[in-house]
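Quick entry between incubations.
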Amino acid sequence: MNADFTAEDLVFQDEVRTFLQNEFPAEYREKIDANIRLSKEEIINWQKILYKKGWAAPSWPEEHGGTGWSQIQKHIFATEMGLIGAPEPVPFGLKMVAPVIMAYGNDEQKQRFLPDILESNVWWCQGYSEPNAGSDLASLKTSAVREGNHYIVNGAKTWNTYGQYADWIFCLVRTDNTVKKQEGISFLLIDMKSEGVSHKPIYLLDGHAEVNEIFFDDVKVPVENLIGEENKGWTYAKVLLTHERTNISGVPRGKRRLRALKRIAAETDDGFGNSMMENQTFRNRLANIEIELKALEYVELRTLASISAGKAPGPESSILKIVGTELAQKIDEIFVDLAAYQSLPFVPEQFEDGFQGTPIGPGNSAAFALTYFNNRKASIYGGSNEIQRNIICKAVLGL
Amino acid sequence: MDFSYSEVQLMLQDSVQKFVQKSYDHDTRTKIVDSEDGYSKENWQLFAELGWLAVPFTEEDGGLGGSAIDLIVMMEEFGKANLVEPFTATAVLGGGLIAELAEGAEKAELIEQLVTGSLQLACAYAESGSRFNLSKVTTTAAIEGGDVVINGNKIAVLNAPNADKILVVARESGAATDAEGVSIFLVDANAEGLAITPFTTFDGKKSSEVLFENVRVSESVRLGSSGQALNALQKVVDRATVGVSAEAVGALESLLKKTVEYSKTRKQFGTVIGTFQALQHRMADMFIECQLARSIVVMAAMQLDSLADELKKTKAVSAAKSRVGKAIRHVGQESIQIHGGIGMTDELDVGHLFKRVTAIDIMFGNADYHTERFASLE
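Done. Structure below.
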C-alpha cells in the first residue's frame, strides 16, 4: 500500500504547477488573496486561458475536447488549482449541463452547445430549485406546455448563482401533471434573452447578490431545446447531480487558507505582547483543522484510487461534501475569531472590483465575517448536508 | 432559592415587550438601520421616558436601581427584537464609567443628561494591538502646561458617529500592558484633532475608528484619579459583557422560536420538515443550548449583584461569556441551516439575528478568550 504518485504523475504535477505559476494572472491571484471577487470578464478570461491550454474540461471525453487525463491527473490538476487559489471554472456549463447534453442530447444539440461551453463563449446558469422545491426538488412547479413547435414556460426558479451573467439557463420543467411527480419533468434549455424572462437579485447576508430569482412569464421555447425525451428530465437531472463528485472536498483550498491564517496570526497581537501564533488555544484550533483536513484528504485519495480501479463513484462523495463544507465553515470561524473586532465593519463595497476609497481595518479582515456568513450556504447547496446524510443512510447503511 | 423576577422586573420586561410588539418589527428595524443616524431618536426619547435609560444606575446616582438582574431582564428583550439603539454604548459602557469614576455635580449632571436621553456616549477602549486585553493601552495622555494631550488610534468605537462625548482610555504612565497608569478622559466628540472614521458593523450598528492626534483637553475632563481607571473599566466592561450575553440569550431564543415555527410550515417531501426526527433532535439541542446560556447568564448577573469578591465575579462573567459564545455558534448556525437558502437572505430577520449574535460573540472577548481568562483566574 502506498499513496505515492508515479514518476509520470510527478512530471505532470510539475507541468501543472509551471502552467499555473505562469498563466494564472498575478492580478487575479492578488484579488483572490484580498477577498475581492473576480469580474465576469476576468472569470471568462481565466477560463479562456484554460481553454487555450486545452485544460478547460478535464471531465469531458476527449472527442468533445476533454483532456484525456486519468483520475489521478484530474486530482493533481484540481489540487494545484486549489493550492494557488485559481478558481475552478464556473460549473454550470462545463460540469453540469454539458454532461447531460453529451449523454442525452442529439447531434444537432451537441454541435450547437458544446463548443461554446468549452470555449466559455456562453455563460450558463442552472434552473433547478424553486421557492417551494429545494431539497425536495422533484416537487417543482415551473410548467412547460407544448403549443405547436414551442413550449410555453411559466414559473419561477431561485438560487440561480450568477443568473445575472447568464446567456442560457437549463431548467427542469413540469410537462405532465397527471403522473408521479418525478415522471412529469423535462429538461429544457432556455435562452435568457427570450421575451418573458426576467431576474431579480437576492441579497445574501454578506451584502452581495450572487444569486437570483428568475421568472418565466409565457416564455416561448422552441421544442428543439428539449433535451432527450419529454418527461424523462428527472433521470437526466440525477445524472447531473451525481456528476464529478470528486474534487469537492476543498482540501487544497483548506490548506491554502490555513497557511493564510498562520501568516495573519503571526502578525496579530494577542494583546499581551505576543502574536496569536504563540497562543496555545489558537494553535490547537489550527492543529485540529489540519488533522481533519488530513483525514479528509485520505478519504479523497482512497475514493480516487477506487475510481481509478474502475469502480463507480459511490456515496463517498457524500462524505467529501459534508466534511469538506463543514471544515471550510470551521476555517471561516477561525478567521473571524482571529480578526476579532476588526471583522465587525460591514463594508462589502471594499471587496468589490474597483473600490477607490480608504479601506477600513488592516488587510482584508473586514472580509472575514462576510465570508463566514456567505459560506453558510455551503452546507445547504448542492444537496444539503442533511440530504447527503440521507444518502449515506440509504445507500451505505441500508437504513 | 428563588429564580423568579420581582414585580418591578416583570413590569420592565412587559414594558419592553409592549414597545417591541407595537413599534419594532423587522421592517421598522431595517429602516432604522438604513437611516443616516442608524438609530431612532424618537425611540431613544421614548426609552428615556419609559425609564429604561435609568435602569443601569443606582438610585443614589439618579437611576432606578442598577442591579445586573434588571439589566439582563431588559437586554434579553432587546435581543429578541434585535434592537439597534445604542443602549450598551451609551447607558451601560459610557454611563457605567461615569457612575464609577465621575464625582459630585459633574456626575449628577451627566447622568441626568443621559437618562433623559440628551447625551449620547461612546467608549474608546480597544486598539488594533490590544485584542481583548483592557490593560493593553498604547494611546498616550501627556500633561502639557496644565492640559492633557492625547495621541493614539482606537478601533471598534461603537456609537462614536452619534456621540456627543467620547470616553477615551489612555495611558499616562507605565508600559503598554501595565494595570497602573491607565486613565479615562471624557472628550467632546468634536474636539480638535479627533477624527472619526465611521462605518456600519455587520449587525447594523454605527461604529468607527477614532484617531486622536494631539487632542488637547483640560485636565478636568479626566474621570477619577490619574492612572487609576483600569479597575473601573474592567468592572464596567464585565457588567456590559453580562448585558450583551443576556441580549444574545434573547436573540438565540428568537432564533429558536423562528426556526421551530418555520419547520412547522415549510413543506418538503409532502410533509412539514418539522416532522423529520433528524431535525427535531437538532432543534431540541438548540433548546438545550438556549437553556444553558440563559442559566449561566443568570448565574453571572446574580454574582455581580452579590457581595462576592472581584475575582469570583470576574470568573462568573468569563464563564458566562465563554458558554454563551458556544451557544451563539451552535444555535446561530443551526437556525440558518434548518431554514435553508431562505435563511441566507438579507430579507429575512433570521440572518440579522445570526449576525447580531456573531457580533456579540466578539464583543468584550470571544469564547476562546474568556475560557482562557477563566482558566487564568484559579
